[in-house]
Q: What sequence folds into this?
């Protein structure tokens, strides 16, 4: 058996400690909450742009579509999931408290 196969088998057989599994599960839950909030904000933004374009009686349907399409692409940058210092600090504080409560750290 070659060394790469043994390394692969060892990694595949490795079982993380329970606290790591719990931490990863909670991080996953936290990221899902963040993604849901960002998605909702983006959808609300896009709805407002569609309403605005529809209200423009002087635009052709093509102009309305182009406007909404351009705003939708701009929205990807505006609502991209980038964590600010405040969110990172909250996540760190959350995990420190979680690990303290679980007895992993003091």
A:
């Amino acid at each position: 058996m070659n060394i790469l196969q043994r390394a692969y088998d060892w990694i595949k057989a490795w079982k993380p400690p329970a606290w790591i599994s719990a931490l990863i599960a909670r991080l996953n839950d936290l990221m899902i909450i963040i993604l849901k909030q960002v998605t909702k904000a983006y959808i609300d933004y896009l709805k407002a742009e569609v309403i605005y374009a529809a209200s423009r009686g002087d635009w052709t349907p093509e102009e309305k579509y182009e406007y909404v399409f351009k705003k939708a692409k701009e929205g990807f940058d505006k609502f991209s999931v980038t964590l600010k210092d405040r969110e990172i600090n909250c996540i760190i504080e959350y995990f420190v408290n979680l690990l303290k409560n679980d007895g992993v750290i003091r």
